[in-house]
Structures are given as C-alpha cells and as structure tokens.
C-alpha cells in the first residue's frame, strides 16, 4: 500500500526532478545515454534485474530473460538489464509480448534492442543505448537475476525504483525512495513556481540565484 | 524473373529475420549503426557499390557518385557507399533527385548525408551514420565503383542483396540469397507462431527455449 | 537596418548552402554534431556567447547563463554556449521560459540540455549534442560571456551570425556575413537550377560536373 502510493507519487515527477532530489541527498542514480528507443511513454516502477554476459560455449541453454519474465507476479515491474555486448540485442518482440502480457511496465537496457517496431506496435516502452537487428542468440547469456547490477555506472538492486522519460533513466534505492519523493515534490513545486515567476516577468537572474534554490536545504532540514 | 521473385520475397522479411538466417548459415552481413537518416521506409534491392576516399589534390574532377547513378538501367538498385570521411557528406539532394528519377530504391552510406530534408521531401530513403551540412566537394573523391567494398565491417559486392529498415542494414551475397530467403521465411513463420503462443498465454520460457528455436536446424537440414 | 536585412536574407538560406559559401571563401564555420534536440524549427540570429567551465569549489554563485539572458535587449539573439561537461546539462526549462520571454530565438550548446520537453512545450528551439537529466548545479559554472568561444572546433565571437537547422549548426563572423549571404544566394539559385535540371531529365553527371559548379568562382570573381 505504501509502496503503491510511493510509486504513484514518483510517477507524478520527472527524471529531472528526481535527479535533483538525489543530488541534494548526495546519492547516485542518474544515468546518461539510456533513452527511449521508440517515442515511448514514461515508465515508473520497481526493478527486476537481469545480468547478462557474453556466451562462452555453444551449448543451447534456457533463453535469456524469459525465466525472469515468467516469474513476475505483480504489476509494478520494470525489467532492468545489464552486461550485454555493444551492438548486440538484449530485447526483442517475443519478450516484449511476454512482458506486456505479464503487465511489466517497460524495459531499461544498458545495451541494445532489436525488433523495435514490434515493441512499438504493442505500446511496450523500451529504453536503452540503441537499436540493432543482431540477435543475442549464441552471443549473450543470462548469468544471474534479482542481484545488484551496474547500469551505466549506477548500482541497481532488485526492487529499486526506476523512472525513465525523454531525458533518460534514473534509479532510486528503495531505502531512500520516501526521502527522494518528498524532496522531489518540494523541488517540483519550487521549479513550477520559478517557471511561473519568470513567465510573469520577474528577473530570471533573481529567480535562479542559488540562494533561492539552496533554500530547499533549509526547508528540508 | 527469379531475381525479381527473390527480391519480392526478401521484401516481405525484415532485417531481424534476415540477420537470423545469416546467423544460422554462419554468414556475415548484419551491420550496426547504419540507420534511417529520416523516418524513411524500408528499402530492399541490389547493391550498386561506390568506393570513396579523401581527396589528395585540388584538381576538379568528375563529381563523385554521379557516373554510377548515370549508368543505372534497372529498377532494383540500392546505392551502397563506403570510404568517406567522418562528418563529411557523401549524399545530397541533387543526387537524391537524380537517383529517384532513375528509380533507384535508396542509398546506404557508411558515412554521412547532407540536405536530408531534400531527400525526405521527395520520399527518397537514405540510411547511414548521421547527418551533417559539410559538402564532399574538395574533400572526398570517388576512386572506384562496382567493386567489393567494406561497409561497417561487412564486405559488400556489386549485386549483393540489401535490406534496410528501422533496426538497421543487412547485406546478403547473391550466391546465398535463395538459402537466406528460404530460411528467413521459415524463421518468420516460427517467430510469428512464437509471438502468437506468448499472446495466447503460453509460457515464454517454454516458447523461447533453445530446443524450440534450434529445431529450425533440423527442419532445415 | 542593414543587419536586419542580412538576417532575413540569411534566414532564407539553409545550413548546407551557408556551409558551401564558407567553403568557397576558405572560411571555417560549419560544425558537426550540434543538431536539434527536439523536432524544432530553424533558428537564425546573432550570437550572445557564454563560456562555462567545471565548478572548482562549492560556494553558491549566481546561476549560470541567467545574467546573459537578463541583459538581452534586442530580438535577434541566439544563445551560444560552450565549455560544459559531457553528459551534464547546460540548459533547462526555466532558462527556456526566460529566454522566450526575452524573444531570444534559440539556444545552441556545445553540450547537453535537460527538461527538453519543457523547451518543446513552449516552442523554444534548442540545438546541441544530446539530452540528459543531470543538472549543472554544483557541477558547471559560467566563467565569461560576450567573448570568443570555441564551439565544436569553430571560434564564435559575440554578434557572429548563427544558422541552425536539421543538418546542424553553422556560424558566420559578422565581418564576412555580407559576402557569405551574397554567395549563398547565388549558390542556392544554382543548386535549385541543378535540381530542376536533374528533374527534367538532364544527365546528373553533366549537371554536377565540377566545371559547372566551379563556375560560381568565375561568376563571383
């Protein structure tokens, strides 16, 4: 219940605001380079992590990622995938269809996706580094899941919070989500007020002077 | 006649499927990074290759690529261009207009294009690494054509088959096109069946288990 | 008055043509990699330059760029920003609102922007290297303005002319603008004529032969 509520509150923010809240708290979480691979909507949810690695032999194995999708039993999941190979796909349209039918909210890949039209055609959001047509088959395997992975320089653990929109992808450790959302809401209100002030003709130098913005600290303390 | 038919069959596939067929046959052909430079349609055709190189003197010469466009006398051509310089254009709108009037199906550049709005305005597809405004004039010259060139790591010969769509660009040597199309059609049917199975609620882990997919080999053998 | 007229004439050209004019005159000015960060219209105007640098201490300071926006008192300005950090934003939606209310024509960044939806929602054009959500706050400071800065390899001075469109961004020193516009208009006419010639069925090899194009030199001499 509290998590659902936190998710809804997180969903009302954007990545810029969440990144600012992390900054104020001295926490990592913002990533550069993981952006929408089609013109897809924002996703907000909790991470189901998958760790991939280059394949080291030719024995057929269980297909990567499918066991993770299989076990999903809540409607708040975002698949977060790390460890692939540059230019090789970690995500395609069979997986997108399977994830969509499990009500997964979207996929974030520190890597590439293929079949991107297939994900778009069913409205399934995919964020990542780029698009390719080259299959993971016989190139990439899954070596672990539900563990802490490194995504574009940020450690992401199972159940961490994820927000992804036009500006990129941000992760929030579950231990900090309440603080981050509280602060994010305050930053969003202030930011909205600053935009209003500027639109109504107030000096932007005055509105954006750091003494104004740093006041968040005082307010927050 | 048989080529026309193979082209039509190739045109019914996508780059993901053709790349998978090449994988099964152990052939190269898939490239990373050569993507649509405007929101352009898929192109399928046979390569007319052009090899460029940095200009080494200041003597005016015949304009690059124009002699190749000039000599085209069939309606199945895709211009495939390699050997340019990073950030310098190899393709502009006069060439696009000339190619369109010769019924060329599109251009794939291991490099950059300029005047991209001009190509878009006449609906001429251009795939490549990026867009610039800097002219090839006095910077890049054509050194050969109708020869084997290296495009994003793949050797492409005159008359090789080309398919390019949202996911990128794939080349198929003419000697293998029948095998690749046969196998691609089988893969496409299987892929469609897998998406259907997943949509109808079957376990994705079961549907995508490698034993299922590797069955293509048996079927093909 | 004469400047206004030159600006209008520049606005009738595109970056490809202006880059060609600079080439003929042996001048730098064309850049690679500074492209629209949303699907924004062409901008043409005169540079107000801003030089940023990584922050070296934690003392709160005046917010970067705001003093420059504050002092703008004409309707021909384009903000041109250099010296940021890879992956860190130099531009957001409060600044976009402030700039829009000052009738600034757009922003070109040798770097990144955040809040890009905010700029898009008010129709404010932003060109640069990419999008991020990470704030400049406590990471980047303004160290100078209205000075000569280096933008993607090109020196840009206060009041230089700027043109940016789908193909990228080009700068023209004010001392050369008349020559560049004169020559650009002649190139544009010739280019239009070449497209017409090709469309009407003339040989593209003949139309684009360098002797044709180099005739611009003679005409210009």
UniProtKB/TrEMBL annotation, chains A, B, C:
Keyword Methyltransferase included in the entry's annotation: yes
Database matches in InterPro entries: RraA/RraA-like (IPR005493), RraA/RraA-like_sf (IPR036704)
CDD domains to which the protein is assigned, alphabetical: RraA_family
Binding site for Mg(2+): 115
Record: residues binding substrate: 92-95, 114
GO terms for biological process, alphabetical: methylation
Protein's UniProt keywords contain Metal-binding: yes
Protein name from the UniProt record: Putative 4-hydroxy-4-methyl-2-oxoglutarate aldolase
UniProt keyword list: Lyase, Magnesium, Metal-binding, Methyltransferase, Transferase
GO MF: lyase activity; metal ion binding; methyltransferase activity
Names of the cofactor(s): a divalent metal cation; Mg(2+)
Domain of life: Bacteria
